[in-house]
Sequence to fold (127 residues):
Amino acid sequence: MIFPLPPEEEEVGLIEGIMPDSKEEYWLAQFLWANDIIFRYQWEIFGGTSRRGGLIVDFVAWLPMMTPIPVNGEYWHSEEMDSDLRQNLVAIADYFNIAVENIPILWGKDAQTKEEVFAWGRANVLR
Fold:
């Protein structure tokens, strides 16, 4: 019996010299590159992971103002916002002086494929 080959997965490459934590992060970087959006990857605030209370924001893009873009994949985060995630978003919003509601969050359900990430980017980043 002959079985079809599984679809080939695109290799995940470096983002600013850093291996991303997920393919979703790599896809988002590809979207930002494709749309000539200036961004930084793994932006540390309040000391990053080296200080208690510090955070790392997955992406900060200039749209034209600095805008944090967290990537919350299904492995580490559920669709429902728990108190820790909400607290982190409030801290991120405070740091960037924007409303929590204006932070575009890429959830795992919106990032099953590269095409879905690009569609999410067009709807939430290029707005």
